[in-house]
Design brief:
The chain has 9 helices and no strands. α1 runs antiparallel to α7.
């Protein structure tokens, strides 16, 4: 169990201030780079060095959109403000891939109720160790025809507004795919896959005990996954402070 000294409660007002400030930074950063990259970027020789870094940054910010929405699902983004959580959560998942916040929230609730079982929508019971089949099932379960239609409509609108195909691929498609891989690998597959070691408890989750910076860059500390299941009210930025004894 977690040490009591690691679970000092944060006053709701302070958690809201910090959470909303971090959410605003992620959303603003993603929007700025997205709009600039899709509509205003002009290619030059320096892009051989610059673009890979920008794609990596946008992938990380895309992951951040989903992590902010995830905190909103648990009410830890803005404690005691359900409407604020729902509004910002919907904004983030809409920007991410046209998702519906309420549907994702219901799915994630089922994940916490029965993690690592056939009733878990994020688990692949048919292949609980294998990466590719699990990734395919995860992707097709969450990205459905509704999301595909929304993304396609936005894509056509972008083209009508003058966006170039190479810019769309580089600054929208590649970061989206990179983020999906990041979220699945660090936030689902590594914590919940079956291995030789037994899980500690009914949460069927393990933590990736990486250094602070690596944990932040990998998936906003979501690798501290067993701690998240033990304390789902703890926001992403506080997960490194939670330790199991």
């Amino acid at each position: 169990m977690a040490h009591a000294s690691d679970l000092h409660p944060v006053p709701p007002a302070r958690q809201r201030r910090v959470g909303l400030a971090l959410a605003a930074a992620v959303i603003a950063g993603w929007l700025a780079l997205h709009v600039w990259g899709v509509f205003f970027h002009r290619w030059s020789a320096i892009d051989a060095l610059r673009v890979p870094l920008l794609v990596a940054l946008q992938s990380w910010l895309s992951t951040g959109l989903f992590i902010v929405a995830h905190d909103a699902i648990h009410g830890s983004l803005a404690p005691q403000r359900p409407r604020v959580n729902a509004w910002i959560g919907q904004l983030c998942v809409a920007l991410y891939a046209g998702f519906n916040f309420r549907r994702l929230a219901a799915s994630h609730q089922r994940h916490h109720e029965a993690p690592g079982t056939a009733d878990d929508p994020d688990f692949h019971a048919a292949a609980p160790r294998t990466f590719a089949p699990w990734l395919y099932a995860f992707f097709t379960r969450h990205f459905r025809w509704t999301e595909f239609g929304i993304v396609t409509a936005v894509l056509l609108a972008y083209i009508a507004l003058g966006a170039q195909a190479l810019n769309l691929v580089t600054f929208w498609a590649l970061p989206a795919l990179g983020s999906a891989l990041q979220l699945f690998t660090v936030g689902t597959w590594l914590p919940h896959r079956h291995g030789e070691d037994a899980f500690a408890d009914r949460h069927r989750a393990r933590s990736l005990r990486w250094p602070w910076l690596a944990s932040l860059l990998a998936c906003y500390h979501f690798g501290w996954h067993h701690e998240h299941h033990l304390h789902p009210h703890v926001p992403w930025w506080r997960l490194p402070s939670v330790r199991r004894g």
